[in-house]
Design goal:
Length: 160
């Protein structure tokens, strides 16, 4: 199963979703609009209950939700693709575990003015995760960033 968790200010069918839906028809994207973190976590838990081999692509706040969901229910997951994940707050510090590095890709813009690059780098070091830094801002809207996102999803899906 393949899910996309959108960010705080976007919706379930924004630019990144459209990019990925063109490649993966089975992509699902729950609507978290207007929900705080705890409500999003409950909604994400309900949407993924009873599943296995999940790959979740989480963008910004959606990346935080995906990482927190993995930390609570690792048995549901195959892997994660975290895009400028909002792991720079105390809520990010509550993440207790992450998948092995081969099942995770983290992409962060060097010029991100929302989620500090160094905080994401520290998160990656904490769990020994690969970090791809791109020449982009928080939205990861540049063509090279979009190519990197698609490639990261392919790599996590292909991981055995």
């Amino acid at each position: 199963m393949l899910y996309f968790f959108h960010g705080l200010e976007s919706g379930p069918h924004g630019q990144k979703y459209q990019l990925l839906k063109a490649e993966y028809a089975q992509l699902r994207s729950p609507d978290f609009q207007g929900m705080d973190l705890e409500t999003r976590l409950l909604h994400a838990e309900a949407n993924t209950r009873g599943t296995q081999n999940l790959v979740v692509i989480g963008s910004s706040f959606g990346g935080l939700v995906a990482a927190r969901l993995y930390s609570a229910y690792p048995e549901r997951f195959k892997g994660l693709v975290l895009l400028a994940p909002a792991v720079h707050t105390e809520e990010g510090d509550r993440i207790a575990r992450m998948p092995d590095a081969q099942y995770v890709r983290v992409i962060q813009g060097q010029a991100d003015d929302v989620v500090p690059h160094e905080r994401v780098a520290a998160f990656c070091r904490r769990f020994d995760l690969p970090l791809m830094t791109v020449e982009d801002g928080h939205r990861l809207a540049e063509s090279a960033s979009q190519d990197a996102i698609v490639q990261a999803v392919r790599e996590v899906l292909a991981a055995s």
